[in-house]
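Subject: complex prediction, re-run

Hi both,

The earlier run crashed halfway through, so I resubmitted it with identical inputs.
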Amino acid sequence: MREYPAMPRSFAHLSDEAVVALVARSDQEALAELYDRFGRVAYGLALRVLRDDKFAEDAVQEGFLAAWRNADRFMPERAKASTWLLTFVHRRAVDLVRREDRRRAEPLPKTGEPAPSGSAEEDAWLHFERERVQAALRQLPDQQREALELAYYGGFTQSELAERLGQPIGTIKSRMFAGLAHLRELLAEPNGESAWKPTPFTT
Amino acid sequence: MEANALHDLTAAYALDALDPGDVREYEAHLARCERCRAELASLSEAAGALAYATEAPAPPAELRARILQQAQRERRNVVPLRPRWALPAAAAAAVVAACAAIALGAWAVSLHGKLDRQQRVAAVLGDPAAARNGLAGDRGTLVVSANGDAVLVLKRLAAAPPGKTYEAWVARGGSPQPAGTFEGGPQHSVVLLGQRVPQAAKVLVTVEHSGGSDAPTTQPFLSVQNSAQS
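This time it finished cleanly. Structure:
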């Protein structure tokens, strides 16, 4: 059999889902690749929820380690790898902000230098994505947007939201559902790269 | 809580906004309710998109190293798969030709944890004598090994709608025989067919109600003939 020279591994051709498959085999280089793809957006999310860089780092670390431990249960037919990973980070961030609420009186440690920015390519892509999602958010009715933002970024539970906004919990549930469903439609990708659907087949 | 009330919690769960007391009850419901699982999958994509609306400064460089270090400490005790996957170079090249490098990773994902099945898929895709039948529109490949074992690789077939599933069939002359259900998804679907596929037989795929059917109840949206010479 022919032998091939050892080559540095490249993940560039792999889909996010394929990288998670390698993570499921305890491949640390794949975990590093996953971090390089999503560490920054994960950190931005955690920072938005927690408003503190040390807590945000903790949430990102815990989120990635949860992914490391659970990668073998990832089901690509159920979720994009990015959604799956960011769910771990978000859940951890929300847990932290809720716990931290109880000790809000304590001063928060404030450390860390302003972080350097990523590559120009990454900057451009994140900028593009941010504009796209923000534009979609702006198109939502105010009450739906408010419910989504307070829940997702604010870490408020639905009953806390009901109390805060002085609405019945059923109203809050409806706003969250309508807001997400609406957002999903606004963000749906036009054909180009999207998946194909079955159409009746005739011979 | 009533089932209807539990259905209503899906959006809050997708946003991590359930009250702690409701989480366990909802998750138990989720395990039983296919409708909620499908809805959660779709609402979670929208919730996940909210992460991208935030400003994203780069995290401190040490964070990456810290995560990797901790991961190494927790290294899970997993059977390494690589040796089992080792295929002759020619076969490996054929695998790549059959489904491209991206699909290779994707089917490893969808089959992860099902080693027996995984090995059978690897055996089919790695069989140098296997027949590779391309689908119209470059939508995938039907690979049939010399012994008739077959794998259908579909590129980016949208996930089956809630309450529905895709079902593969093998037809040769008579009525099509059921050959397994699958769900599709954003990446590649790799279906190890539950029936052997003789030469000149056709493989069909239909949309069926969840759980599948004994005979097709809808028009096939996909049909491919095995042109194997074996």
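Residues 3-49 of chain B form one domain.

- K.
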